[in-house]
Amino acid sequence: MGRSSVFTFQYIAIDTEAGVTPEEFETFVRGEGVHLPLYPGWRWTLLRGLRGERAGQYLMLYEIESAEQRDRYVTARGEQTELARQFWARHPEAEAVLARWRRLGTFGELPTLFTDYRLLADNPRSTVTPGPRYRDRAGEEPVARVIGIHNLALRAGVTEEMFDRFIAENHHRIDDYPDWRFHVLKGERGNRLDQYVMMMEIASVDALDVFYPEPDIATGVAAEFAATHRDTKQMYEEWKRLASFSGSPQIYTDYLAVAENPA
Asked: Does the pLDDT of residue 3 top 90, yes or no?
């Protein structure tokens, strides 16, 4: 993940009225959908909500190497550019797979709701390193990361410039839990434009449960970590004077990665 990375969230739904089940959809995506051609510099991960606002629902998380690479293929309105249309014209074999996907649920395209974000900060010291968010291949260690999407809001009188500057000047003070990695994202465009998001990338469900086995209920291990990382705790208190923090009462969903086209 580069410092210029941008992210797109596409809110996906399966056709439950037609009897489509999560198992059927995920089996299709892992077996066929992941082989769809991908724009250069793009990758996507299919996520299923574990808990929170969208438990049981799906999100397509796109990570793109730069805003310039995103804009080559998708406009600010979410429409394909001429270069994107040329790309798909060179891959006519994809249409049959896309047609099967659309019979099961929505794909990452209009009129699906979406938000584009740019990366404000993350923690390069985290033990969660760039790599697959989902992997299930014979002979390799399985991977199924948890992606927490926690919406944030600024306090009255706080401007975006004030909060952006605070994050830029203070994010280095954050020490993540082991096997966790934070990303602060700022919404830039989309037909569902959210202002800020704290995106937590967690190595596994087990790594989540060590600290938060239930929503908003921290374990003793989490309390011990906070006690030994006082400056991180202090930074969070300063943060809360400017904006909300992750978890309740803000809207959030913790998702599990269930398929990935890794590029």
From this structure: no
